[in-house]
């Protein structure tokens, strides 16, 4: 494996829910409220529950209808900071909508990395 593709996480963190993952980026389970809206500005934002977050994408639970390929904006509070992320709906399974991020601003990427790091390495930290 090339050095540029090495993960900072040990092999013990390659398991998520007991299933071997193909993802190259770490992610965490969580349960926080968020809003999701079409980036085009059409429609009104809807509330959802953010259930999974990583530097490459997220999953959320919503009863609202989105379609694969929709470009969306998700807003939520992370590390006490209101965070806005744009991405593309990648998959829909029941109430679960999976979004792959467009290019993340460096400050948002760092905030997500810090959140993941606290989750794995500092369990006493307030998230």
TrEMBL record:
**GO terms of molecular function:** cyclic-di-GMP binding
Gene3D superfamilies given for it? predicted glycosyltransferase like domains
One Pfam match, given by its short name, reads PilZ
**Which residue range or ranges hold the PilZ domain?**
21-116
What superkingdom does the record give?
Answer: Bacteria
The name this protein carries in UniProt is PilZ domain-containing protein
């Amino acid at each position: 494996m090339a050095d540029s593709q090495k993960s900072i996480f040990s092999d013990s963190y390659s398991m998520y829910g007991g299933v071997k993952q193909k993802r190259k980026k770490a992610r965490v389970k969580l349960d926080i409220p968020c809003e999701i809206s079409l980036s085009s500005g059409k429609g009104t934002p809807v509330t959802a529950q953010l259930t999974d977050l990583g530097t490459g994408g997220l999953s959320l639970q919503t009863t609202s209808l989105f379609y694969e390929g929709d470009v969306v904006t998700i807003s939520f509070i992370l590390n006490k900071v209101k965070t806005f992320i744009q991405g593309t709906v990648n998959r829909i399974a029941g109430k679960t909508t999976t979004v792959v991020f467009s290019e993340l601003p460096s400050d948002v990427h760092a905030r997500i990395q810090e959140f993941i790091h606290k989750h794995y390495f500092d369990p006493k930290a307030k998230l």
